[in-house]
From TrEMBL:
Protein name stated in the entry: Transmembrane 9 superfamily member
Cellular component, GO annotation: autophagosome membrane
Reported function: Plays an essential role in autophagy.
Principal location: membrane
Record bears the keyword tRNA-binding: no
Subcellular location: Cytoplasmic vesicle, Autophagosome membrane
UniProtKB keywords: Membrane, Signal, Transmembrane, Transmembrane helix
Organism of this sequence: Branchiostoma floridae
Keyword Cell division: no
Amino acid sequence: MADSFDAPCRTKNIPREIPPVPWYRSAPAHMLIGGFLPFSAISVELYYIFATMWGREQYTLYGILFIVFVILLSVTGCISVALTYFQLSSEDYRWWWRSIFSAG
């Protein structure tokens, strides 16, 4: 009962060629940036957690630990969205797995 599909624009069966990207837009660079920025956001808190585990002091700031965890989640989400946007703006249609690995 349905009519045939009418695309709103001309489409081709052959995927479009992706232009070469500079080194700072490559997948390893995005993974490095996506891992470094969230780690730098919580590195001071990790120092206090490791000092507690090794027995030098007692950790009593569990509320701040929760706030740092929320900051980690928000920084990771923002970095993932920004890096996916940069990839899509360079017209790379193979963004699915790279968006997961960029801040995962």
